[in-house]
Design a protein that fits this description.
TIM Barrel; Aldolase_TIM; amino-acid biosynthesis; alpha/beta
Amino acid sequence: MSSTSTDFSGLWVPLVTPFRGGAVDHAALHRLAQHLRSQGVAGFVVCGSTGEAAALDTAEQLGALDTVLDATPGLPVVMGASGYHLAEMRAWVRTLASRPLAGLLMPAPGYVRPSQAGLLDWFGALADASPVPLIVYDIPYRTGVAIQRDTLLALASHPNIRAVKDCGGDAAKTLALIADGRLQVLAGEDLQIFSTVAQGGAGAIAASAHLQTAQFAAVLAALAQGELAQARALWRPLVPLIEALFAEPNPAPLKAVLAGQGWLCDELRAPMTPATPMLRERLQALAVSRP
């Protein structure tokens, strides 16, 4: 059964996938999700890029999803879904339909670099196949293709495409989507959270919000209430932490901090590598101890 919720506003955390001895550490994932759910988050994303989804097989992805659903009853969960074989993607969407999802987070097909017409066909076909709404993931530095403004505005007319995770790096496109109003615009670059939401964006999908979660949520709440001075005061101390967390490929820095706080093992899957000692020292000076 699928969730009827289509509101993607607020703070969403794209969860890391903990590993122990090469296997998914479901106990650690369960504990982490339970902890974060009480910090003001709107929901979770499972198997996004922060979750190292590309290094998980389908059984592991479903297992991680089931663990998070079990840990966070009543809280919306979005599943990342990516690929470049349309029939296989349709089948995967049907498999995921057996879980109570709020939506699917879906990027353009990687490596293929289709035309804008091809992107319209791709997202349209998968939105038609999905029983839950799609969040279009515009992240050209991972997929190799930018989803152009006119393409996103055309996709907004599809009744099952409800939001965009905006990592496109195009401020004019972001503002056009916000002004159009049909898609909920979610900041996907953590340093763009304040500007996106202050200008009318709906929220954020923010890996950094594994840490200082309540403060990130408070920034969004203050912006929603028009309390700009309060929001700025909450936001500015978060900026150095965000910069450090993305100084090396995500999620290695984040996992280093979470491991230091005792939430999980500092373990990644190849080709990801652990954070460097120099960055670890920087993070230790910025990150708070485990709550």
